[in-house]
């Protein structure tokens, strides 16, 4: 299990299970990310002097632990049985008969309260851990907040976690100008991953899972070990080292077709991936994203809907992590069954080749 620890020195704000103080009239807190420098290749300004956990990592884990300590989680996800499924890919299975897949009916009120926030209308809500927005200083800042940030993300605890620290990252109302999130929000998500600076922290996005009509959001949680797709072999399809900062690869021997974008230039990475996602959206192609490696690596999984279930794979399922509701399903899970399920969601070869050409063209234009 990943745990929080006290940050010493300049950032001695929190200890484990110690929430941010809530002065009278304050509904939550706003965390200002440290400013980007040039290409947004962030240095670890948010780290403690001893090289320990960053301020953002500590606050996030402390707030989530406090939410769990108060009994708001439906179950203790750290107590769920896990196993590595036999085979070469090493898929991971979790037995969790209480996990509740996303249901628009159940989560409608949960998200509706955040979809129309206006100045001075921030409500006190236990699930709202804090907010994040871009800052202008070299070091991060935390300040009391009574109104939603103009451009930011609300960090909301998921009471039905898939893994430790599971949160929703919901754009504030000002960013819901259309039915789709924009490059600013994707860039903010990558910078959050960078400033958390914890190898266990992963950010996810599913294009086909709006809880409320028009409300798109990210998710994030902590995985102690690499996800199976992160260990998959890759081949380079675009090497931008000579012209740009983006490297584009595709997975090899993985049952779900995927492209991998790698760069230390977070601004360029966000621009390229966002433009590709807009193209997929315009072509009504569903996809999922995994942001890992402290925000410097993005996995893109284009998908088709499963004809049997009528659903798409979630981003963590695309990454090789599956939740099973019954002991029988958990015990009988096999690499063959999972691979067939993934393959049925994978786009056709021709469509994937077209996507690769599009990705290379967009990456080349970004230089």
Automatic annotation (TrEMBL):
PANTHER family given in the database record: GDP-D-GLUCOSE PHOSPHORYLASE 1, OS12G0612100 PROTEIN
Domain GDPGP1-like C-terminal residues, every copy: 228-364
GO MF terms, alphabetically ordered: guanyl-nucleotide exchange factor activity; hydrolase activity; nucleotide binding; nucleotidyltransferase activity
Chain ranges of the GDPGP1-like N-terminal domain: 56-221
Entry-linked InterPro entries: GDPGP (IPR026506), GDPGP1_C (IPR058865), GDPGP1_N (IPR058866)
Keyword Iron: no
Organism: Urochloa decumbens
Keyword tags: Cytoplasm, Guanine-nucleotide releasing factor, Hydrolase, Nucleotide-binding, Nucleotidyltransferase, Transferase
The protein's name: GDP-L-galactose phosphorylase 1
Main location: cytoplasm
Hydrolase found in the keyword field: yes
Annotated compartments: Cytoplasm
Pfam family, one: GDPGP1_N
Entry GO terms, CC: cytoplasm
Top-rank taxon, per record: Eukaryota
Family assignment from sequence similarity: Belongs to the GDPGP1 family.
């Amino acid at each position: 299990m990943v745990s929080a620890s006290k940050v010493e020195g300049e950032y001695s704000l929190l200890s484990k299970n110690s929430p941010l103080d809530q002065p009278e009239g304050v509904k939550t807190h706003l965390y200002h990310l440290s400013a980007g420098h040039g290409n947004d290749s962030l240095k670890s300004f948010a780290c403690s002097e001893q090289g320990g956990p960053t301020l953002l990592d500590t606050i996030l884990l402390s707030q989530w632990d406090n939410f769990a300590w108060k009994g708001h989680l439906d179950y203790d996800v750290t107590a769920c049985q896990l196993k590595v499924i036999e085979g070469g890919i090493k898929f991971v299975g979790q037995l969790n008969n209480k996990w509740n897949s996303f249901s628009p009916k159940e989560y409608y009120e949960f998200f509706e309260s955040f979809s129309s926030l206006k100045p001075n209308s921030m409500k006190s809500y236990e699930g709202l851990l804090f907010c994040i927005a871009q800052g202008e200083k070299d070091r991060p800042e935390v300040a009391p907040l009574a109104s939603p940030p103009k451009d930011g993300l609300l960090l909301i605890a998921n009471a039905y976690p898939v893994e430790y620290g599971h949160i929703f990252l919901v754009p504030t109302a000002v960013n819901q100008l259309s039915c789709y999130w924009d490059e600013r929000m994707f860039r903010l998500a990558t910078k959050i991953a960078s400033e958390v600076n914890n190898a266990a922290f992963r950010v996810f996005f599913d294009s086909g899972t709006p809880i409320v009509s028009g409300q798109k959001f990210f998710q994030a949680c902590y995985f102690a070990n690499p996800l199976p797709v992160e260990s998959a072999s890759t081949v380079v399809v675009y090497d931008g080292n000579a012209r740009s900062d983006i490297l584009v690869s595709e997975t090899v021997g993985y049952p779900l077709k995927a492209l991998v974008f790698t760069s230390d230039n977070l601004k360029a990475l966000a621009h390229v991936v966002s433009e590709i996602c807009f193209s997929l959206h315009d072509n009504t192609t569903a996809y999922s994203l995994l942001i890992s490696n402290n925000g410097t690596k993005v996995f893109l999984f284009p998908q088709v809907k499963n004809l049997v279930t009528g659903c798409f794979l979630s981003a963590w399922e695309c990454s090789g992590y599956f939740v099973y509701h019954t002991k029988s399903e958990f015990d009988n899970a096999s690499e063959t069954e999972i691979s067939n399920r993934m393959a049925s969601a994978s786009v056709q070869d021709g469509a994937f080749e077209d996507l690769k050409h599009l990705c290379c063209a967009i990456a080349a234009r970004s230089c």
